[in-house]
Give the backbone structure.
Amino acid sequence: MFTELGLNKALVETLAGRGYEQPTAVQQAAIPLVLDGRDVMAGARTGTGKTAAFVLPLLQRLMTVKSSEHRNVNMPAVLILTPTRELAQQVFKSAQQYGAATDVRSCLVYGGASLNVQIAALQDGVDLLVATPGRLLDLIFKGAVDLSRVESLVFDEADRMLDMGFIGEINQLLKKLPQQRQTLLFSATFDDAIFKLSKTLLNDPEILQVDTRNSAAEGVEQKVYEVDADKKHPLLSYLIGSNNWQQVLVFTRTKQSADFLAKELTQDGLNTKAVHGDKSQGARERELEAFRAGEIRVLVATDVAARGLDIDSLNYVINYQLPYNAEDYIHRVGRTGRAGKEGLAVTLVSSEELYLLEPIETLLDEKLNQEWYPGFEPDLDKPATEKKRRPMSKKEARAEALGLRGKPANKRRGRRR
Ligand code: AMP
């Protein structure tokens, strides 16, 4: 029960109105600590309810702690940093929804949108600010926001922030923040870089690892079909059409592939749109909204564009191309099976990409069974020259010299494990 975690009546009633009956694991662990003013480092993926785990107790602190002091213009008491504008929008939306019964004023600033509108919003007064790092720095330099009264600082998806190269911006922002503050760090994955960052940011943190380390979402079935690269598109159309899947999120590695695939699927009669970093913010938002509303059946996205996508009823995620970064696989799969719902994540992998599965399996600590889809079996007789190959690694060169390379994929499988 949310009341047992120390949340007040107004917040609990709002949650009941949204149909939240039980706190999720990360909420149970984090809410009392955050209410207590502790620093927290939590390993929690998107889909675990992590946003509410920090937003709810911070709203409550804003309602109770020195609330009269927060009636300042442009001096937030809570700052939430996110790597992307989509995630910033999602967190902001949650802050507004969860804070509906409070008088906490939330504000959102991110790049790619009008500075003046954001400056005016900050001038209206802000208690809780959700921001992407670059735009926040711009606003600080313009004197539009002052971080000297921040009491709680949150890093959401800290691993992604580091992946996207925000460390310079983070260090600059830290200089503008008070030393004495509460700091919360949420990350889907923990690695050395995150631990290093946590040492500079957090003070005697409580470390919460609520999911099994780096696990994909619970309740998500993961399927891997080995298929020739040129058969991926027909197999994808077939899977969507024959199973009558609606609201399918498909991942590609590049913007070009996303556009190209969206065009091909549209020609197959599937209502498809692509979202990626080259599209204007307005276009991305319209397409995400249409996808959420069910007007678009298939959304093809690159990893960066898909960050922060929050769709309650998403059942199908397809990896059309495997990501180079194994952690992106976890983020992708985390788009389905959210908040305890069932989901299916299908990966289409060509023989050229098989090597990308290994680091994913290591990270998941799980073996992903590769299958052949009837009618789309890989053509094992195809000469290797016909298939695009990446340059051989040292390991492969050694395997080649030992005569171990070039065996059919099903034979190779044994050696990969
Ligand atoms: P998040 O991990 O913060 O992205 O949340 C994932 C989804 O779970 C969002 O759609 C939330 O609205 C939903 N959610 C969060 N907490 C709960 C809860 N205690 N009960 C039901 N749904 C929840």
